[in-house]
Amino acid sequence: MQRKIRVLVVDDSGYVITSVSKKLNTDPEIEVIGSARNGVEAVEKVKSLKPDVVTMDVVMPEMDGIAALKIIMEECPTPVVMLSALTSENAETTIKALELGAVDFFLKPSAINPVTDGILAGKIKTAAKCKLLKNGQFAQDTNLIKDKLVTEGSNSFKKLVVIGASTGGPRALMQLIPAIPADIPAAVLLVQHLPPIFTKSLAERLNQVSQIQVEEAGMGSTAGRGRVLVAPGDFHMLIGDGGKLSFSQGPHILGVRPAVDATMKSAAASYGASVIGVVLTGMGIDGTEGAYSIKTAGGTILAQDEATSAVYGMPMSVAKAGYADRVLPLHKIADGIIEACAGQENIG
């Protein structure tokens, strides 16, 4: 008989602990072994109970979720799934948690927003399989960029880079995006599986630590040289001629919206061989059909390797399908993008 995934639930709300525990215990593969009401208690119980996964509230008394996460990652590394309310303040903190090593997050249940069947359990199962990676040598770490090179007014670009990521993505992006120079002769589109508000917080955080401009895309946005545009949560992001972006709330693709496939397919249709697709860490196969479209159009595909992926799902699917021109460790992907950008005429 397969051993159950042992979970510690951490939250200062008794309602949330009860709701989450009850829902998780209905899954035959999961067992809630305890709970904690603050960060101090959470750290103690992680050390004593040795759970396989921890669900962690963000805002708690005595010690908050961020402080507890830092200690857990340093002293007793354990996969952590953050529980976050759908607010801009909580989104910003959750992005910070993902940057620090939390493997995923789940929108906090409430009386009007109960735990959705299967979704949290699925995140717990994914987290239990996640590879806990040591902190990468982020290009700028947590230092804010004081003198950002602004490249406004230049919409012409030699290449169009489309980056896709899911579980483990925010942390990977904190290493990749700061390593891309501001004067790269390419426009960059970024699709990270996140809900609304969280994509904006991710874009703002990446912009703080990167030389290149990063912002959440919106109505009227146009792709341009030296700028990263992040797909907004709950919208597929499509690109057409002239770098013009459009957004669709059409059906979820492979259960997600925004989907990497949607953006990559539109990029391949409009820019063909000038597209560079990059598939990073994540569960599932989103990005595989998009990679096929780019390869068929003569473009280039880079995939993150297994050793540096928190979850080797999306990049593995692309690599196994034979679509990846190069499979690279995370710290070499920026160089791979720069090399692929060389020697092409302007396309947009």
Observed structural traits:
single chain, 348 residues, alpha/beta, Rossmann fold, 2 domains, seven-stranded parallel β-sheet, five-stranded parallel β-sheet, 14 strands, 20% strand
Question: Can you walk through the features of this model?
Answer:
The protein has eleven helices and 14 strands. The strands form three sheets. Strands 8-9-7-6-12-13-14 form a seven-stranded parallel sheet, sandwiched between helices. Strands 2-1-3-4-5 form a five-stranded parallel sheet, with helices on both faces. A two-stranded antiparallel sheet has the order 10-11. The N and C termini lie far apart (57 Å). About 2% of the residues have low confidence. Helices cover 34% and strands 20% of the residues. It is α/β, with parallel strands linked by helices. It has two domains: 125 residues, Response regulator (Rossmann fold); 182 residues, Rossmann fold (3-Layer(aba) Sandwich).
Strand and helix layout:
Elements: E1 5-10, H1 14-25, E2 30-36, H2 39-49, E3 53-57, H3 65-75, E4 80-84, H4 88-100, E5 104-107, H5 119-129, E6 159-165, H6 169-176, E7 186-192, H7 198-209, E8 213-216, E9 227-230, E10 236-239, E11 245-248, H8 260-271, E12 275-279, H9 288-296, E13 300-304, H10 314-320, E14 326-328, H11 330-340
Parallel strand pairs: 1-2, 1-3, 3-4, 4-5, 6-7, 6-12, 7-9, 8-9, 12-13, 13-14
Antiparallel strand pairs: 10-11
Helix pairs in contact: 2-3, 3-4, 4-6, 4-7, 8-9, 9-10
Count of DSSP strands:
14
CATH C-level class of the largest domain is Alpha Beta
Whole-number count of domains: 2
Note the main sheet: 7 strands, parallel
Question: Which sequence of strands runs across the widest sheet?
Answer: 8-9-7-6-12-13-14
Helical element count? 11
Mean pLDDT: 91
Given the helix and strand composition, which structural class is it? alpha/beta
Distance between the termini: 57 Å
Content of β-strand: 15-25%
Oligomer class: single chain
Percent range of helical residues: 25-40%
Query: What's the CATH superfamily of the largest domain, by name?
Result: Methylesterase CheB, C-terminal domain
CATH topology of the largest domain: Rossmann fold
